[in-house]
Amino acid sequence: MKCIFCKSDTSTSKSVEHIIPESLGNKKNILPKGVVCDNCNNYFGKKIEKYVLEMPYFKSLRGRLKIENKKGKIPRVSGFTINKDFIEIDFLKYGDNRIEVIYKDDQSLMSLLSSNKLYVPLIPEPPLNNVHVSKFIGLIAFEALAQRVSLIEDWQNDFVDNSSLDELRNFVRFGKGYSIWPYHIRRIDGENQIKYCKVSNKYLETLNEYDFLIPDISTIEGETHKVDNLYFVMAIMGIEYTINLTNAGLNRYFTWLSENQNRSILQMEKSEFHSNINL
Ligand SMILES: [Zn+2]
User: Fold this and answer.
1) Is residue 156 in a domain?
2) Residues 83 and 174 in one domain
3) pLDDT per position in the chain (279 positions), as tens?
4) Dihedral through CA 263, CA 244, CA 43, CA 57, nearest 10?
5) 143 alpha carbon – ligand 1 mean position (Å)
């Protein structure tokens, strides 16, 4: 088998690849070993996911929602006192919204105690036009697509050979072709949504969900189906992220949004939008 990113042989690879990082609450949604090679797995962990998860927005999100990383830790969040003394906060795993305050010196403790106020900046969204975020979303999109088509027998060779995915593949894995692959961000829901799940007949906390949107019917050129725009739409804790897998453009997504009253496909029934993938 060949790695879906660098196309090298993966017969001796040992790593499984988490489609959404474990540190964002994903424990189970993985690609089995042999799909992404150890080198690529390592690269994504160190060069893409680590940067993004350490960004102020993601760190503060993981802290306030108490999302543990794979070592069971919740990130420490920065705050400050009324005198602008730097303070750090640990959100405790157990108990309702209990925090532990870590102060560096007596001055910050005194300023905290005398004013009885602690400021913790709330960062509402991740940055736009950030190379690490664009690689991060592209990476998840690419792997989610691999997972979706992996139900087809012998899918991996076709996926590796699919040249319409080369631009995104080369950007995500090798940083080639573009300085930033455009992506779209907007809030579609609250951070902590409890939703009814038809399949399990339970109310569940939605940490993340995603689907694919093909706004136009594919054209057939010779033997091959050609999809002009294949969008990946994902929500993580209420923020919707959209990226195009087949070319670095979002124009068709914007016109699709205006044709559909700016609704998110994640809040529509499947029959309401085009989601069949036939690459
Ligand atoms: Zn690889």
Assistant:
1) yes
2) no
3) 999 999 999 999 999 999 999 888 888 899 999 999 999 999 999 999 999 999 999 999 988 888 888 888 889 999 999 999 999 999 888 777 788 889 888 998 999 999 999 998 888 899 999 999 999 999 999 999 999 999 888 899 999 999 999 999 999 999 999 999 999 999 998 887 666 667 777 666 667 889 999 998 777 767 666 788 999 999 998 999 999 999 999 999 999 999 999 999 999 988 887 655 544
4) -30
5) 12
Neighbours of ion ligand 1 (CB under 5 A): 3, 5-6, 37, 40
How far away, in angstroms, is 60 Cα from ligand 1 center? 31
- Phi/psi for 164 (5° steps) reads -70, -10
Assess whether 166 and 209 both reside in one domain.
yes
The domain of 79 spans 64-115
**Whether the Cβ atoms of residue 81 and residue 111 lie closer than 8 Å to each other:** yes
Report the domain count for the chain: 2
| Ligand 1 centroid from CA 42, angstroms | 9
Span from the CA of 226 to the centroid of ligand 1 (angstroms): 26
| 221 and 183 in a common domain | yes
Instruction: Tell me, in angstroms, the distance from the centre of ligand 1 to residue 17's CA.
Output: 11
Place of tokens 């997504």: 253
Residue of 139, 138, 149 lying closest to 278 (CA atoms):
149
